Every structure is written in structure tokens, then in C-alpha cells.
């Protein structure tokens, strides 16, 4: 059985020592985010019993996906709603990222390599969604839709890598009771 291309490329990311300087640069920043035990517990979802990050991602992704659907089939009357949905996703992007960085601090080198690419892809998607939102606010709806579609594509890459971390590499805090 041959290795699917996405798997081969992800394995290359895991083994890429070229990402190590980025990982080393980010570690102290992410570590400072969770330096206080209470903050770490909140961001990692200790109060929930497992990682908060996967749950948090559903909201911005859901808002952005809904905006895309409205852009594609909603017509001119849906433009204000689409713009509001983009804005709501943008408001939640920061807190969602914080929960991801909190999980990242407790991972190994290969997971951290993939994690910084995951974060970079998601950061690029957020920047594109912001540009889309700004274009729409300036009455450049067509440009806003194009930027939103580009953002959705980039977000797909980030989502793939996040899914890899959770499903293939089992990244995610959990209550010790789940160990049995």
C-alpha cells in the first residue's frame, strides 16, 4: 500500500529540522501564555475534562463556513449577514488560538513542528478573512468574496494539520480518569 501524498508531506513536516528555529522562538511566548496554573487549566480545558481547543475551533469555522455558503447561494440580500458572520469568526479567532497554543506547550518536537505550520496556516486564513471583512465594509463585495474563498482554502490546510495532531498524534489534554 502506498503512502497518500498528504501523509507523506505531513511526515516531512514532522521531520523538518528547518522548523526548529521557529519552534524555539515560539516556545517562550507560548510558555508565558500558560505560565500561571489557573490560566493553563482554563485554556487547556481542565475544567471540561479534556482539551478545549477542538471545541473552540467549531465556532469560527462555523461562522466562516456559513458566510461562504451565503456568498455562494445567498444573493445580494445575504451580504450583510455574511459580513457579520465573518466578523464573529474573527472575534473568536484569538481565544481559539490561545487554547491551541496552550495545548502546543505540552507536545513533543515533531508535534510542535506541525503545530507551528498549523498556526501559520490558520493565521494566514485569519488575515485573509480580515481583508475580506474590510473589503466588504468598503463596498467591494466581489473582492471580499474572493478573499473569503482564498481564506477558506488556507483554513482547510490548517484544519488538516490540526486534525492530524489530534487524530494521528493524539495531541490534547485530558483528565487522568480517561487513561483507564
Any overview of this molecule?
The chain has helices spanning 5-15, 20-33, 37-44, 53-73, 79-104, 109-137, 141-168. It is an all-alpha fold. The protein has one domain.
Spell out the blueprint of helices and strands.
Layout: H1 5-15, H2 20-33, H3 37-44, H4 53-73, H5 79-104, H6 109-137, H7 141-168
Helix pairs in contact: 1-6, 2-6, 4-5, 4-7, 5-6, 6-7
Number of E-state strands: 0
Strand content: under 5%
Helix content: over 70%
Query: Secondary-structure element sequence?
Result: HHHHHHH
Largest sheet: none
Instruction: Give the number of helices.
Output: 7
Cα shape: globular
Distance between the termini: 33 Å
- Helical/strand content category: mainly alpha
Computed CA radius of gyration, to the nearest angstrom: 18 Å
Overall residue-averaged pLDDT value: 97
- The residue ranges in which pLDDT falls below 50 over 5 or more consecutive positions are none
Assembly type of the chains comes to single chain
Tell me the number of structural domains: 1
